[in-house]
Design brief:
Length: 354
């Protein structure tokens, strides 16, 4: 009797089947998750922005001999721990966490298009907080003039990062967001949590759906490419769950929905744009085969072991796909463990204690 004719599910590689590609793998041993679309050479300037998980990429790149670019370094002689507390060395400019595509586009319009910068400042006693970076200066600014000056410094740094980097890594973190319904401006945190006063007549909860997130992220990338035609993008999705949700849903459901939208956006952009790739840090950490092993006791923070696995997967796949494109072989080097600055964590402080 003749053999059955072949079909698309015949003879696929082991990675195409759940049983052999996932279930049969040991924890931490998943391979073949990423086939890089383009090489990153040691001299290529790599800029990093996005949610708090993106803060891991800069130290990891430096430790492996790659060139992470930082256009807003801290003042000289400031100790590393203190500089991190004031928002330095987290990203390639001192933007703080940029959780959503719309917040990224807002920053880019200010930096590249020279759009009108808002004058709003939040009074905090005798000090002033920047509504768009409310936790950046722990003690606030001395006055609105200082706040505006320091924001202009960051906008110049962001503009330089876009113009001079060869690769921009952006980690998508959230779809939930708060906007000023009068101006349309987006805040990184809900007013009243890290400063300011919440006004229900003015401050609106405006979560992104898939079409909004996709269109806005594409617009932000087009704006950056117009400024730097050689810029390439590496998109990731943060595996860190929401600290809290204002959606009315259970936080687990809200997290799943938010990450599904962001993962779909990143995948769609990588599929249609030759300048864009997607790296699966989200899948590496959240895969069922790991059983939550790479989350801390709160089942939210990613452990150092998980971070190391993500970075090992990144550099290992790059070396396998583009042999000789990376730095010369050297003894393994890992950046020291560091506490991430995750502004969204503040929301958890307003809930009941377990």
């Amino acid at each position: 009797m003749p053999d059955d004719p072949p079909h698309p599910y015949s003879g696929l590689p082991a990675s195409a089947y759940w049983r052999s590609g996932v279930a049969a793998q040991l924890p931490g041993a998943l391979t073949g998750l990423w086939d890089p679309a383009f090489p990153i050479a040691p001299g290529d300037g790599v800029a990093t922005f996005g949610s708090c998980f993106a803060q891991h990429f800069g130290p990891a790149l430096r430790a492996r001999g790659y060139r992470w670019v930082n256009f807003e370094p801290p003042p000289r002689k400031v100790p590393p721990a203190l500089s991190l507390r004031y928002g330095y060395r987290q990203f390639s400019a001192r933007t703080g966490n940029i959780y959503t595509p719309t917040l990224l586009l807002q920053w880019l319009r200010w930096a590249i298009e020279q759009a009108h910068m808002p004058t709003e400042g939040w009074a905090d006693g005798a000090r002033i907080r920047d509504p768009f970076r409310p936790r950046l200066e722990p003690d606030g600014f001395s006055d609105v003039s200082e706040m505006h000056h320091m924001r202009r410094v960051t906008l110049r740094a962001l503009r330089n990062a876009v113009r001079k980097a060869r690769v921009l890594v952006f980690t998508l973190g959230l779809t939930e967001r708060w906007i000023d319904s009068d101006t349309g401006l987006e805040y990184p945190l809900c007013p009243g949590t890290a400063g300011g006063r919440f006004d229900p007549a003015r401050h609106a909860f405006a979560p992104l759906d898939y079409p909004q997130a996709l269109a806005t992220m594409a617009e932000a990338m087009d704006l950056m490419r117009a400024e730097n035609p050689d810029l390439r993008f590496l998109l990731t999705v943060s595996p860190v769950p929401l600290a809290a949700t204002a959606s009315g849903a259970h936080v687990l459901n809200a997290t799943s929905g938010s990450k599904a939208i962001l993962r779909a956006v990143a995948g769609a952009l990588a599929a249609i744009r030759p300048d864009t790739d997607y790296f699966p840090s989200y899948e590496i950490i959240s895969s069922p085969v790991h059983g939550g092993r790479f989350f801390g006791p709160d089942m939210r923070q990613v452990t150092q072991e998980g971070v190391d696995l993500v970075m090992d997967s990144f550099f290992g796949a790059m070396a396998a796909r583009f042999p000789g494109s990376g730095p010369a072989p050297q003894p393994p080097s890992r950046p020291p463990a560091r506490d991430l600055v995750c502004e969204e964590e503040l929301y958890a402080a307003f809930g009941p204690r377990a």
